[in-house]
Design brief:
148 residues, 4 helices, rod-shaped
């Protein structure tokens, strides 16, 4: 028994072969092909969701990295920069300048993380949905052509 993807059906020899089969054989073949199609669509959906999950994870990791970087740099560099700037200006102004620079860096990292998460959402298997729609249209076309 040969099974074909919907895009390969249409050879007139297949129609003759199908007419020679019993209804039971045809229903069995339909059931097997439908099961295989559903399985393939589920595998595609799983692959898509895995890919989107990885993208979301990368974005979330960037948020975590931004937080860790902010804490580490804040402790070590803040004292160094404030002390260096304290030579030419009041300590409070040196501390304010350092805080503004750190805030800008943190803002940039947050925006990059947001962009990565946006690319991964919505977590919907869009390609699978499209192929299922195509399969449904193919099945409708086959049903219409079988009636005539």
């Amino acid at each position: 028994m040969t099974t074909q993807h919907p895009s390969t059906v249409g050879d007139p020899r297949d129609t003759d072969e199908l007419r020679e089969r019993s209804l039971g054989e045809l229903l069995k073949q339909l059931s097997q092909e439908t099961t295989r199609l559903v399985h393939q669509e589920l595998e595609l959906a799983k692959a898509e969701l895995t890919q989107k999950g990885k993208q979301a994870g990368t974005g979330a990791g960037m948020f975590g990295g931004a937080g860790a970087l902010g804490l580490a740099a804040l402790g070590a560099l803040t004292a160094c920069f404030i002390l260096a700037l304290d030579v030419v200006m009041p300590a409070w102004l040196a501390a304010l300048i350092v805080a503004v620079v750190y805030g800008i860096i943190a803002f940039v990292l947050v925006r990059q993380g947001q962009a990565r998460i946006r690319r991964a959402t919505p977590p919907v298997p869009e390609q699978t949905i499209e192929t299922v729609k195509e399969d449904v249209e193919w099945a409708k076309t086959q049903m219409r052509s079988d009636r005539t």
